[in-house]
Amino acid sequence: MIKLYGHELSGNCHKVRLFLSLLNLEYEWIKVDLMKGEHKSPEFLSLNSFGQVPVLVDGDTTVVDAQAILVYLARCYGGDQWLPLDAVSLSQIVRWLSTTAGEVRQGPESARLYYLFNATSINIDRASQKAEFILTQLDQHLSDRQWLEFERPTIADVAVFPYVALSPDGKIALDPYPHIQQWIARIEQLPGYIPMVKL
Ligand SMILES: N[C@@H](CCC(=O)N[C@@H](CS)C(=O)NCC(=O)O)C(=O)O
Q1: C-alpha distances out from residue 125 to 57, 110, 114, 165, Å
Q2: Which of 6, 47, 48, 86 meets the CB 3.0–4.6 Å disulfide criterion with 64?
Q3: Ligand 1 atom 10: the closest Cα is on which residue?
Q4: Same domain assignment for residues 97 and 59
Q5: Do 106 and 73 fall within a single domain?
Q6: Atom number, ligand 1, closest to the C-alpha of residue 10
């Protein structure tokens, strides 16, 4: 059975849990207690030397990094629907995987870390500015479409969704972004949708 190592308050882990649920795949959840530093233990570092969750183990295959795991699951269990492979479509999806690891992480994800987990090394003014930038861009992008790319949800939506929806945890209101709010509501209606645990 697939094993997922993670923490329930991590949006990066939630991307993977959400996608496993959308794909209706069974898996074993193995909690890595970040508060106790379990992600820096020798056992966990032997799975991911970066010392980060999520990590997915499927038989002999170990995949680290939320975006890499989404790609792996999509191609093994979801097929073209979630991750098409022609050059143009693939580049459109990768653009959003990159955006979530870049602008979304520097913006709403960092603001959430600052306020929820007291990560005071984060420059909150910079994170808030970055959040406003990417949320404005996303809202505009979603103004004339239902999903980030194509006429259906893909791993682009699954990857970008958690930290955007969690923006209020970082004291960033979503009221100014009506198209993002509608997109969030659409994702919440997908068969298999699961909410994230609240602190
Ligand atoms: N690029 C990685 C980042 C993962 C990440 O930042 N995980 C956090 C939890 S959300 C973590 O494990 N932090 C502990 C640490 O970096 O020491 C991914 O997308 O999976």
Answers
A1: 38, 11, 11, 20
A2: 48
A3: 10
A4: no
A5: no
A6: 10
